[in-house]
């Protein structure tokens, strides 16, 4: 956790936030720090006393720390210093469906999309012609449509391997905090954003991963950081951010409408939000009743996600806070590379909203 981000963003306790109180967090313990980056430490609420760990530079600021740690203990304690041959043997032995394998596949797909366009070594052509860097290109298209932003930092929700954090920091020249709930992705995202390197296994086939390790070219400097936070319980006061980014994340939330309301809360007046949404709903992530469309085709909206999102981003009873769509929506190509012979293709819905005043 960069001290500069902590001091400027002044995070508040997500436990107290649930009862509507903004109580600031204090950095009560620093056990490892280098160049203004706290690697290991503890944040504590000035009000209720809740404690939030900082592990490997990632502050974990979620309402239920105990549950988060229990569910993510394997990922928090997983080592990332295994050498290629030993990791390969452990990967074979752990087998498909293991925790190690789920880290490797997840990181392979996202690291390739986010940073594969800077890989100095060639890789096999992707079936269907997909090229890495789609998430950065799509964000660029969204940033072209922002108009005038108020003063303030940027929140990147579901920042994964961190490319959108650095793109926004470079392009807007503002501080950006990326948040995610995936420990392996936040770890690699932080390595990219703060450390300027990527080091991951690119899945070739089955349990075979080729190690990719290279320095990154990005000009984010000290403006980017990556934290572990929940989009549904953002540990920030109302009006903190000028811009919120949500690339391919809204349909990964437990409650997408509540997520949009949270975004509205933390935006400053006339702040902007950009979302890219493939509407790829999954029942184990989002309960069906919380999906935006994709069900109830008998009703007036005929199950259309686009129609429901439009209602959420318009004046009316369904409005998600004060977010209002501006400009036309777009469709952008996004894809997820699984291995040398498999890639999933999406057309994602790209929309820009502003926080209406009053
Ligand atoms: Zn508290």
Explain how this protein is built.
- The protein folds into 2 domains: 62 residues, no CATH class; 272 residues, Rossmann fold.
- The longest helix has 17 residues.
- It is built from 10 helices and 13 strands.
- The chain is globular and about 60 Å long.
- Helix 7 links the parallel strand 5 and strand 6.
- The two termini are 34 Å apart.
- It has 358 residues and is α/β, with parallel strands linked by helices.
- Helix 5 packs parallel to helix 8 and helix 6 runs parallel beside helix 7.
- An 11-stranded mixed beta sheet has the order 1-2-3-4-9-6-5-10-11-13-12, sandwiched between helices. A two-stranded antiparallel ribbon has the order 7-8.
- Zinc ion binds next to helix 2.
Radius of gyration: 20 Å
Question: How are helices and strands ordered from N to C?
Answer: HHEEEEHHHHEHEHEEEEHEHEE
Strand content: 25-35%
Q: Output mean pLDDT.
A: 96
Distance between the termini: 34 Å
Main sheet: strand order: 1-2-3-4-9-6-5-10-11-13-12
Under CATH, the topology of the largest domain is which? Answer: Rossmann fold
Total domain count: 2
Tell me the overall shape: globular
Give me the CATH architecture of the largest domain, please. Answer: 3-Layer(aba) Sandwich
Number of strands: 13
Largest sheet: 11 strands, mixed
- The number of helical runs is 10
| Structural class by SSE content | alpha/beta
Helix content: 25-40%
The distinct ligands, each listed once, are:
zinc ion
> Which CATH class of the largest domain?
Alpha Beta
